[in-house]
Amino acid sequence: MSKPKSESGKEPPRIRFGDDLLPAHDVWHKMETVNVVVDAIDRFNQKFPELASATTRDVVPLVRQRLKDIELHMPYKGSQADLAELAVNLLSSMSPEEVIDTLEQEHGARIGIVDLIQLAGDAAYRAALSREATEYELNRISPQQAADLWNDLGRPAPGGGLWNAAKVQALLLLKPD
Predict the structure, then answer these.
(1) To which H or E segment does residue 159 belong?
(2) I need a surface site. Which of 2, 90, 127, 147 has the fewest CB within 10 A?
(3) Closest Cα to residue 92, out of 126, 119, 135?
(4) What are phi and psi of 20, to 5 degrees?
(5) Helix H segments across the chain?
(6) What is the pLDDT of residues 117-127, one digit of tens each?
(7) pLDDT-derived band of residue 5, with 50, 70 and 90 as boundaries?
């Protein structure tokens, strides 16, 4: 079975449902069913409070909150090359996390840190980190503190593994543009 396409032949809007991005039209059907069931449980709890269990009372607000947490993802309309160029340009003045947020908010491109590195290239990623490490050094943040921060942010270290002071010091030797 092929994926449904929008009128323009591009990928349809997707909605994050749990850990997956599903076609929006599929999710709407699931959400309608969930809403009907939650409303029925809520009515049951209201009408027969003596029969309602802690589980049935707790599930209504939980499911309603989860439904509010579902987010829409509109596919990026430009080409992969346009997105890559944009990512490189943004990395020249922003942190990787800011670039990821900007690409999603302003261009509808939902990517993670590894996707960003693949898209923009290792050199652009290292240059952004070098610039940031230099700023940290000027503000008396040690290489080990920077490594700890970057590990907490989930940023991949060049060559793999976790960040450490030596890897951050190697970045300080690069001359940021």
Answers:
(1) none
(2) 2
(3) 126
(4) -115, 150
(5) 24-47, 54-68, 80-91, 96-107, 113-120, 122-138, 143-153, 165-172
(6) 988 999 999 99
(7) very low
Q: Of 134, 73, 139, 135, give the one whose Cα is nearest residue 108.
A: 73
Residue 93 structure tokens: 């003045």
Note the pTM of the prediction, 2 decimals: 0.57
The amino acid occupying position 99 is V
Rounded to 10 degrees, the C-alpha dihedral 73/79/81/82 comes to -80
DSSP 73: E
User: How many CA within 13 A on the CB side of residue 176?
Assistant: 17
Joined tokens for residue 80: 């992969």
pLDDT in tens, 80-135: 778 889 999 999 999 999 999 999 888 888 888 988 998 899 999 999 999 999 99
Residues 6+ apart with CB under 8 A from 94: 102, 128
Here the tokens at position 20 are 């997956």
